[in-house]
Amino acid sequence: MASSEEDGTVEEKENNNKKRTKSALATAWLTFYNIAMTAGWLVLAMAMIRFYIQKGTHKGLYRSIARTLKFFQTFALVEVGHCAIGIVRTSVIVTGVQVCSRIFMVWFITNSIRQVQSEESVILFLVVWTMTEITRYSYYTFNLLHHLPYFIKWARYNLFIVLYPLGVVGELMTIYAALPFVRRSGMYSMRLPNVYNVSFDYYYCLIIVMLSYIPLFPQLYFHMLRQRRRVLHGEVIVEKDD
Ligand SMILES: CCCCCCCCCCCCC[C@@H](O)CC(=O)SCCNC(=O)CCNC(=O)[C@H](O)C(C)(C)COP(=O)(O)OP(=O)(O)OC[C@H]1O[C@@H](n2cnc3c(N)ncnc32)[C@H](O)[C@@H]1OP(=O)(O)O
């Protein structure tokens, strides 16, 4: 009897130790990840400012930062993994929609369609993304280190009110500007007849993507408004499971 109680205690201790090691590892990884991402987006901000000061135009800016942007935005896919394995308390779906829509914008629109790279709308979403990500990743970093300055917390949960819609405007205008080039070139499309007997039109796919902002964006925006109430005003919010 005594020995089984002792066994139970040893097991509990081992489990607690495992949990502590797991959470210390997770915290170490998240701290490293958030510092790297803050640095990455800061590098992008500096590169954009330097380009504009030197050239006095936004034309060519996208090409000059394309590699860094593609790297850091694509790396954000790791965040879907963070949610899936439970090391951050965020919905996989919310994070997945946010990250995938950005990756789609970078790889399948801006990177693929050279003609849109000099549009003002590209600069709009680039500036907005950069401001958001520097704030967001530095918020997570300072929060993990338990030294969160109030202005970063304030910026994280207030700036999005304006930046989120502005980013959406930039993204939608860029996709809209891409439509004529996509239609003319027939890129990423498959016409019948072909060996697979499948037809796909990227032009209509882009229209569907644009329309999908109507149901999806409000969900992301209201999610952030709920987070804002929870973090800044201490409201207890019960989120539905994924
Ligand atoms: C393939 C075809 C695709 C077609 C797509 C169709 C379109 C769909 C529409 C999409 C529209 C998107 C538009 C968008 O791209 C435009 C812009 O982004 S403009 C710029 C403005 N944007 C923003 O402000 C972004 C706001 N969004 C986000 O911050 C995140 O993406 C979001 C997932 C929404 C964040 O939600 P989350 O629930 O994570 O909020 P919190 O930051 O408050 O975090 C909750 C808790 O988790 C902890 N956490 C999260 N991540 C980390 C991390 N990396 N390290 C450490 N801790 C982390 C956080 O601290 C919170 O913890 P606690 O609960 O303890 O406080």
UniProtKB/TrEMBL annotation:
Sequence intervals crossing the membrane: 32-53, 159-182, 202-222
EC code(s) of this entry: 4.2.1.134
Bilayer disposition of the protein: Multi-pass membrane protein
Pathway annotation: Lipid metabolism; fatty acid biosynthesis
InterPro entries for the chain: Tyr_Pase-like_PTPLA
Classification via Pfam families: PTPLA
A GO-annotated cellular component: endoplasmic reticulum membrane
Chief site of localization: endoplasmic reticulum
UniProt keyword annotation of Cell wall biogenesis/degradation present: no
UniProt record, GO biological process: fatty acid elongation; sphingolipid biosynthetic process; very long-chain fatty acid biosynthetic process
Record bears the keyword RNA-binding: no
Catalytic activity from the UniProt record: (3R)-hydroxyhexadecanoyl-CoA = (2E)-hexadecenoyl-CoA + H2O; a very-long-chain (3R)-3-hydroxyacyl-CoA = a very-long-chain (2E)-enoyl-CoA + H2O
Localization per Swiss-Prot or TrEMBL: Endoplasmic reticulum membrane; Membrane
GO molecular-function term, one example from the UniProt record: very-long-chain (3R)-3-hydroxyacyl-CoA dehydratase activity
Keyword annotations: Endoplasmic reticulum, Fatty acid biosynthesis, Fatty acid metabolism, Lipid biosynthesis, Lipid metabolism, Lyase, Membrane, Transmembrane, Transmembrane helix
Top enzyme class: lyase
Family under the similarity heading: Belongs to the very long-chain fatty acids dehydratase HACD family.
Role played: Catalyzes the third of the four reactions of the long-chain fatty acids elongation cycle. This endoplasmic reticulum-bound enzymatic process, allows the addition of two carbons to the chain of long- and very long-chain fatty acids/VLCFAs per cycle. This enzyme catalyzes the dehydration of the 3-hydroxyacyl-CoA intermediate into trans-2,3-enoyl-CoA, within each cycle of fatty acid elongation. Thereby, it participates to the production of VLCFAs of different chain lengths that are involved in multiple biological processes as precursors of membrane lipids and lipid mediators.
UniProt protein name: Very-long-chain (3R)-3-hydroxyacyl-CoA dehydratase
Origin species: Larimichthys crocea (Large yellow croaker)
